[in-house]
Amino acid sequence: MFAIALDGLDAAQAQLSAYPAALADALAARAAELAEALAERVRNDKLAGGVLNARTGALSASIAADVAVDGEGGLRATVGSFGEVKYAAIQEYGGKTGAHEILPAKAKALAFVAGSKLVFARKVEHPGSAIPARSYLGSALGEMRDELVTALAAAALEAWEGA
Q1: CA separation (Å) from 123 to 66, 103, 113?
Q2: I want to staple 30 with a disulfide (CB 3.0 to 4.6 A). Which of 121, 133, 145, 155 is the partner?
Q3: pLDDT of amino acid 55
């Protein structure tokens, strides 16, 4: 009969069984940090003149990061425009607006400059617009891709070494 005795088997099994929880915790913590860093880049670079110039700051204020763990151990990090900024998607992806009527919201007439003259009107018939894509989210993600992958891999390695 042949028999093998392994010293430290219980410790190795304990380390292996602790690894999934340690990995999930490490990745969730790092993903939250990285998602916030990506959101900051979008707000402070892309929406501050890098891709779009801020007018009201509403789009920038709507940019947030969210990290969620589902019931099956999956992890999802989302960075995007959260809220009622209706033009967020058309700026990111481009698109067309339909013809529409523009009416004054706070006065009895619209006022605008046409050529060199100040014009007043009760309404304006807008013919629609073709809006080009101005990627502020996708371009920031592309620029940070290598940094994100490296940081998540490092978190997994740290979890392995610490488990």
Answers
A1: 41, 5, 14
A2: 155
A3: 85
The packing angle between helices 9-41 and 137-162, to 10°, is 160
Three-state DSSP at 57 gives coil
Q: How far apart are CA 68 and CA 149, in angstroms?
A: 18
Summarize pLDDT for 144-162 with one digit per residue, the tens. Answer: 999 999 999 999 888 888 7
Task: Give residue 13's identity as a one-letter amino acid code.
Answer: Q
Three-state DSSP class for 119?
Answer: strand
State the pLDDT confidence band at 14, using cuts at 50, 70 and 90. low
Which CB contacts under 8 angstroms, 24+ apart, belong to 81-90? Answer: 81/137, 85/58, 85/59, 87/59, 88/59, 88/62, 90/131
Residue 100 in this model has a pLDDT that exceeds 70: yes
Residue 31 and residue 78 in contact, taking contact as beta carbons nearer than 8 Å: no
